[in-house]
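Following up on my earlier message about NSP. Here are the inputs again, as you asked, copied directly from the submission form:
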Amino acid sequence: MSVSYGKTFASLRAGADQAWEDYTRHAFVEGLCDGTLPRTAFLHYLVQDYVFLIHFSRAWSLGLVKSETLDEMKVCAGTVDALVNHEMALHVQTCAAEGIDEETLFTAAEEAENLAYTRYVMDAGLQGDFLDLMAALAPCVFGYGEIGARLGTDHAEPYKDWINTYAGAEYQEVCETVGTMLDAAVARRLGDDPQSSPRWAHLQNRFTRATELEVSFWSMGLRGA
Ligand SMILES: Cc1ncc(CN)c(N)n1
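Thanks, got it. Here's what our run produced:
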């Protein structure tokens, strides 16, 4: 299935070049897809990802603070809801089945890659405006959407629940909603030709750096093998 999450994402994705391939075709992802990923690596990743999503929810909440329109506020609020009430249920349920309770997840010590990525994004939002924050948040949302769409919903155990979460209609709808909002946010602030804005290179830089941090996050997961 090929997906489209808007022209801003398409442009940033193209600008990230090889880093985007390294992220969305990482060995961790291919191991999820063919089922060869060691369970220990998956659980190591999943515990870290729970903590990651806590901090990403905080960063999307900052999006509410930095919004300039009600539509931007609604999308940020909806994304926080999707993260804390839906996506994280995957982590809680999968870990519970392995004997890892939610308190353990919530208090898990962060790996350096996790800390670097989440705080990089938060700092982008604290230092900059709404677009700086969105450029740093975008690889997270769209990358998993693209991976899910590529892998599709036709998978067997052991990783079908994970794949279905990102391939499924609910997550894909979040990506489309964020993509539409992002295009409008960029047009509002940078006009119809955003790539010619002096700000574009900086936004691209934020997007590419966040994409590289996604690559490191997968590699951190593999260390748990
Ligand atoms: C590290 C990471 N990046 C993205 C996603 C998708 N929300 C995630 N769960 N974890």
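One observation from looking it over: The CA atoms of residues 90 and 161 lie 8 Å apart. Hope that helps, and feel free to reply on this thread.
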